[in-house]
Amino acid sequence: MKNRHIIQLALIALIAFNFGCETKTVDPTDPTDLELQLEALMNNNTAWGLNGGSVVKDGFDVTSQFDGFALSIGEFTYTTQNSLDTAWPSSGNWEFVNDNPNKILRSDGVEITVNITGSKLILSYTVSNIGGKTSGINGNYEFTLTSN
What we know:
Helix content is about 20%, strand content about 40%. By secondary structure, it is α+β, with helices and mostly antiparallel strands.
């Protein structure tokens, strides 16, 4: 008998909880998180640059090595100006990783963590496949770019 009352109370609580929850209807015309991130990355067809930004490699500021750097992001393409090709190729393609709007994969195989806050774009990634004379390019990079 006691178990029956506990079950009834649990059912009443469950029903009350369900009525108290709002159900959110999804409008199929609303942009997805990926579409919103793509739009933000494309930055109204304006390049991202180092004006007030920085480049940090393995904890050291190396912004001076990227003087005049600019990154233009298109619909799954990108181009750069004044870059070190081994750290940021002059052009290529990219895609979202596993439908995650905060992870992209460049066509050279480098996976990048993306964070957009206001007018700042922060890109974090590791270069680890460079050998020979350019092996000094290997490391952990963080580009903090601003809308030009």
